[in-house]
Amino acid sequence: MSKTSLPLAEVLGFEASDKRIDILRRIGEAGSISEAARGAGVSYKAAWQALETLANLAGTPLVEKAVGGSGGGGAVLTAAGLRVLQAAEAMAGARQQVLAALEHDSATGRAALALRTSMRNQFPCTVGRLQPHQGQVRVQLLLADGQAVHARITRESVQLLGLSPGLPVLALCKATALQVAARLAPTPSRNVLAGTVSRASRAASGGEVGLRLPGGVQLVGFAAAGHGLRAGQPAMAAVDEAGVVIAAAS
Q1: Residue 235 backbone class (left: φ over 0; alpha: ψ -120 to 50; beta: rest)
Q2: Which of 87-96, 97-106, 211-220 has the lowest mean pLDDT?
């Protein structure tokens, strides 16, 4: 691999708030995935998930087994792994300088600066309850207007993001995953939010609809053919709990 072919922007441009880079750094220091997991306060499985995600983004392994490692966890960073750590340190320093210059200290602001995503719906929330659910975790996300959204994620993701009640986060979902209609019934696996239509496509086949929540959050979704929605009318938006993504600020 040439020096310029490692996609550092992809590896470091997303999920800046979780512990993946910290785990990679600890592996470089301890030479052990299990030791790195313990030091980062996550499970061995979560550490492996972090490494797999980073490797997928980088397009090349960042860690390899070390001959003679103790307890089956011996590991060393590859040349690409070392370069990722160097870039992470440089970016962290530069990011702190930018944030200081902007005098922008809100947690939701830091999260927004760190994200590049195709998901058009991004809105600030506060973590409420975290409930185990069928091998996953059901995370309650509280909006400023009193409504709540739930996301279903893995236990490893909860650890990597450091989620706990009261933590400010961003909730994200695709516009194509958000159904808008005059009335929608909640189900055990679906979020339903109430708001006011801000704009609506008049296409016969249905189309994009903007929905403004009482707290000011603007959502974008799609309504079915013949929806009859007009600006100023009350409406509801629904999104599956598995379709909600959580981003935590660093």
Answers
A1: beta
A2: 97-106
Task: Report the candidate in 176, 187, 191 with the shortest Cα–Cα distance to residue 241.
Answer: 191
- Give the model confidence (pLDDT) of 128-164 as tens digits: 999 998 889 999 999 999 999 999 999 999 999 999 9
* Euclidean distance between CA atoms 75 and 94, whole angstroms: 29
Domains in the chain and their CATH numbers? 8-103 (1.10.10.10), 118-171+244-248 (2.40.50.100), 173-240 (2.40.50.100)
Say if residue 2's pLDDT is above 60: no
Do residues 176 and 182 lie in contact, with contact meaning Cβ atoms separated by under 8 Å? no
Q: Which helix (H) or strand (E) holds 160?
A: helix 155-161
Residues in CB range of 128: below 8 A, 6 or more apart: 139, 140, 141, 142, 148, 165
CA dist list (Å): 243 to 19, 36, 149, 155:
22, 31, 11, 16
